[in-house]
Amino acid sequence: MQREMIPTHHASASGRRVLRRRAVLAAPFLAAALCAAPALAQEPWPTKGVRVIMPFPAGSGTDILARAIGPRLAQPGQTVYIDNKPGAGGSLGADLVAKAEPDGLTLLMGHIGTLAVNPALYPRLPYDPVKSFAPVAGVARVPNVLVVSAGSDLRSLADLVARAKAQPGRLTYSSGGNGSAAHIAMESLKLRAGLFMSHIPYRGTAPSVQDLIGGQVDATFTGSPAVLPHIRSGRLRALAVSGSARLAALPEVPTVAEAGYKGFEADQWYGLMAPAGTPAPVLARLNAAVQQALQSAEVVQQFANEGASPMPGTAQAFGELIAREIPRWREVVKAGNVRPD
After folding, report:
1. pLDDT for 30 beyond 60
2. Which residues, 6 or more positions from 170, have their beta carbon under 8 angstroms from its beta carbon?
3. Is 313 left (phi over 0), alpha (psi -120 to 50) or beta?
4. What is the dihedral sign for C-alpha 238, 243, 249, 253?
């Protein structure tokens, strides 16, 4: 949760070594852009350090995906680094990017929460998810996984639903905070199944999962990267996944739709955003580089290991996804009477 010092272009040798050890998300995209289509390659590219704002703490699904892709794709030639700026459900970090110079040197690792859910949570949101940013590209889609501790006697979604209905309010579920993607996903499931479960918010995904493992809470419904290692180690049991299809990493676990709630889907998604007004040639170069990175066999496999799938497409398609998701999640927030911290 500690905010990190922002390295400068004149960092010391030891500082540069620290940066190299840090996972880097944007470096491969920028480096790969140099090999993009000739028409794009003619555009000059900034040589200053590029800062990618990560609006969530270490251990979150967003952070895990970034740190998974960075080491496989990083290439020398430019200082590009991740700067964790958590707070207010990702709004603090997103606002920093919204107010940054539109020069391609400051980017946001956007997420369903910061771009589609927060408009319903914060009446005075300091940025507009549509007007304040220029979409670059979608990066990944990640299903939420409904999990309980290995010691729980709940062995299916049907078990959880039956218990919650028999003992309203007795079952608890954790999330990374009020209004977080995990909170909203469970509220969507509660609304669909007619459940009453008590929400226990934490300051971050990692502690919410650790307390689930320890038995302090009964369930969580969060992004697969944060829980897959614990499922594989036997410390957590998966009951269902939120996507339209089963997760390749958990082929034996049914979707919520298969478990009786047809049409249910509550995946998380991620993508890069730049400040509004960023020059079109810079956005085009970035998008081309993202597409190239997402076609890498190594990246596809690494994403699969984390329970994520690449989300290729145009900048326009990513922007349209954001616009569609905003009204959808506004309904869930209103129905669940969700309030931010």
Report:
1. no
2. 163, 164, 198
3. left
4. positive
